[in-house]
């Protein structure tokens, strides 16, 4: 059970960091859409463009609860409205948390 939560948390954290670096490298705002079944990253512009899609943590039978299911990251890597967004991944009694800062950092608890 703990391994599944650890793996799901690691994949969500990796997804976040990959999308953040993409925003910086393309100098374009990115929208992250986080759900149990899927994780999507979209370059925002005149026409939105999905550039990263992964299966969500539910594939490990891990639930995902987010205080904000959509996070925006600016071209500088800073979060827009993402400060203190808390993501909790849980399976049974085992849980791990990820928290974002307005600076675009991600902390794993």
Structural description of this entry:
This protein is 23% helix and 40% strand. The chain has 109 residues and is of the alpha+beta class. The strands form 2 sheets. A 5-stranded antiparallel sheet has the order 3-2-1-5-6, with helices on one face. A hairpin with a 3-residue loop joins strand 1 and strand 2 (38-43). The mean pLDDT is 94.
Number of helices: 1
Biggest beta sheet attributes: 5 strands, antiparallel
Strand order of the largest sheet: 3-2-1-5-6
Fraction of helical residues: 10-25%
Average pLDDT reading: 94
SS-based class: alpha+beta
Question: What are the segments in which pLDDT stays under 50 over at least 5 consecutive residues?
Answer: none
Topology as a string of helices (H) and strands (E): HEEEEEEEEE
Q: What is the 3D shape?
A: globular
According to DSSP, the number of beta strands is 9
Roughly how many Å apart are the termini? 17 Å
Percent range for β-strand residues: 35-45%
Structure in a nutshell:
The strands form 2 sheets. A 5-stranded antiparallel sheet has the order 3-2-1-5-6, with helices on one face. The protein has a 4-stranded antiparallel sheet with strand order 4-7-8-9, with helices on one face. The protein is 23% helix and 40% strand. With 109 residues, the chain is α+β, with helices and mostly antiparallel strands.
């Amino acid at each position: 059970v703990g391994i599944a939560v650890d793996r799901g948390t690691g994949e969500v954290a990796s997804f976040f960091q990959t999308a953040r670096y993409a925003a910086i490298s393309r100098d374009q705002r990115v929208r992250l859409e986080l759900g149990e079944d899927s994780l999507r990253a979209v370059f925002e512009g005149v026409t939105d463009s999905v550039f990263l899609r992964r299966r969500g943590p539910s594939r490990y039978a891990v639930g995902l609860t987010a205080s904000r299911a959509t996070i925006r990251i600016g071209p500088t890597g800073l979060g827009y409205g993402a400060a203190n967004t808390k993501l909790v991944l849980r399976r049974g009694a085992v849980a791990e948390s990820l928290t974002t800062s307005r600076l675009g950092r991600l902390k794993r608890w």
